Give the backbone structure.
Amino acid sequence: MNRWQAQLDLEFCCDKEGKSILKKNQHTGPMLVQKPFYPEKACHVYLLHPPGGVAGCDDLHLKVFVNENCKVLLTTPGATKFYKSEVESSHVIQEFTVANNASVEFLPMQNIYYKGTSTRVDTIIKLYGNASFAFRDMTSCGFAFEDKPFENSSFFNRIFIYQDDKLKFLEINRVNGTESLENFLCNNSNVFIGTFLTANVKEETLQNICRYLEENSIEGAAGITDSILAVRMLGQDNQVIEQALNWIWQYTRQETISIPPFIPRIWST
């Protein structure tokens, strides 16, 4: 079986005018970025994953370093697809280091885990000083129209957030086959999972997010733990989940990243 071993190292810094620029762009294997865009104060970068998606036994490693005072938004031009694993699991590591007074927003499009996949994803966010961040994850465990969409499938998702080298937040999400998908304490038969994380929002902001979920009949919850806002949603309609994640990101961006919301152009194509 062909095995992708891919790594992408990105580093951002500010030039003399205070513009966030891509200083380092090194890659091995089929992980690339398009030319940075500057539609606003933040630098927008589109990540390109391996053509055809991620298969079993692939290893992908993304490393992003954001220097002081930089503002960076990273997204993807389309869904990332994780295919059936014949023998070994695929493993994705996403690591972000954010210096004092800098910000990173990692807002990829949907991750689709096909029936038969075995995938592990580790997201590591390291914050220093007054660094800020926003993170979203849209997960599809198979397809809603399939019978037993996640049979003989599994994914294991861990999110680590560090503040000044001390672990501040850890989330572990494991969906292992049909039993997990249908379990009331896991997915409650919902194929789609939405996650949003950021930090340092007011209590009023949290209450308004909870109200949005309730008014739109979205199965989900939101809370603040040690200044980290965590929102988790479940559903059968990926568009509802995506719209909710977009709304929450736009609603909290000024408060957390200190710039008004600006929709990446690629989301409209």
In short: Residues 5-191 form one domain. The longest strand covers residues 166-176. The first helix runs from residue 177 to 182.
